[in-house]
Amino acid sequence: MSYVTWRDSLLTGIPDIDRDHQTLFDLANQLHDSYAKGVDPSETKEVFAALLDYTDYHFRREEDLLDREGFPDTEAHKQAHEDLKNQVIDLYERYRKGEEGVILDLLAFLSNWLRFHIMEEDMAYKAFLDARTK
Predict the structure, then answer these.
(1) pTM, whole model, 2 decimals?
(2) What span, in angstroms and rounded, lies between the C-alpha atoms of 121 and 131?
(3) What is the pLDDT of residues 43-56, one digit of tens each?
(4) Could you tell me the CA-to-CA distances from 17 to 20, 100, 108, 126 in Å, in that order?
């Protein structure tokens, strides 16, 4: 059973963005699984690092799309991305220092943030892009 479950209601209709979102869900589930199974901490650390890297990649791709399409709230969207990156980096640093419970904090944060960000903020640019094609 997945920790975070992808739903079609999260689809933006932009294939690259949707694949990225699904990959982020997959990475969050891999992080949960590695933690829950009690595997070697280096494996959990690798998954955590991969999640950070892929998040950064996705944000750049999404921001480039918004810039290209002239989305009026691009700067606010970029700030939301920056805020998330800073929070995740902080959690990663706490994890690297051996702080207990950080993975659980991160998983709870990601679960809530992914759903909220996609359903609220990403769907706002989806509506903008959809309106432009009509």
Answers:
(1) 0.89
(2) 16
(3) 888 888 898 899 99
(4) 5, 33, 22, 11
